[in-house]
Amino acid sequence: WSHRPALLARAGRCDQISQGMYRARDSTPADISVCDAKGAVFFKADMDIDCDGAITERCNLAADPYFQNSTAYTQSDGQPLNAEKLPYIVVPTPSGIWNYRSSGIGGGSVAAVIYRNKVQYAVVGDAGPSGIIGEASYATARALGITPDPAGGGVPSGVTYIVFKDAKVPSLEDHDAAVRLADGGVVILQR
């Protein structure tokens, strides 16, 4: 994870591209901006746990009262993503605040998620509420050492999400391809 310093350096100063601010939760103030990073966008937020998609031992209606058996984007075979196994992030549904598509981002876009001393590469795999930002899959949280329980896990702050523009994997479930693309994106950001 030698790329962590370069990633954090790029996510230092915010050139705001969102037309307003997002909330971490319905009950918190809107104070999170989406920023441009020349070749990527980033935001610094909390992490809520997304367990939607494929029904698994840890991601199901019994474990998550808000569970949905679908994701905005799917695997190459048309099935919903597996939040327990696949590192992915959730972007806000397009709104007047920000439309991720206009930033060259969509399903399968590659992201780097940073928490404390760890970096986890992921893909954009789901879309959430239009006014809330800061959510990732069970697998993303677990890899970062964040409690992945969808009912009570996550962290209230300290997570940096960097999404590379125009860098998408053809099969969202191909995590190795996401890692290769992310490594290339980090090299571009260092220039």
From TrEMBL:
<keyword id="KW-0624">Polysaccharide degradation</keyword>
<keyword id="KW-0732">Signal</keyword>
<dbReference type="Pfam" id="PF07335">
    <property type="entry name" value="Glyco_hydro_75"/>
</dbReference>
<protein>
    <recommendedName>
        <fullName>Chitosanase (Glycosyl hydrolase group 75)</fullName>
    </recommendedName>
</protein>
<keyword id="KW-0119">Carbohydrate metabolism</keyword>
<keyword id="KW-0326">Glycosidase</keyword>
<dbReference type="GO" id="GO:0016977">
    <property type="term" value="F:chitosanase activity"/>
</dbReference>
<dbReference type="GO" id="GO:0000272">
    <property type="term" value="P:polysaccharide catabolic process"/>
</dbReference>
<keyword id="KW-0378">Hydrolase</keyword>
<dbReference type="InterPro" id="IPR009939">
    <property type="entry name" value="Chitosanase_fungal"/>
</dbReference>
<keyword id="KW-0964">Secreted</keyword>
<dbReference type="GO" id="GO:0005576">
    <property type="term" value="C:extracellular region"/>
</dbReference>
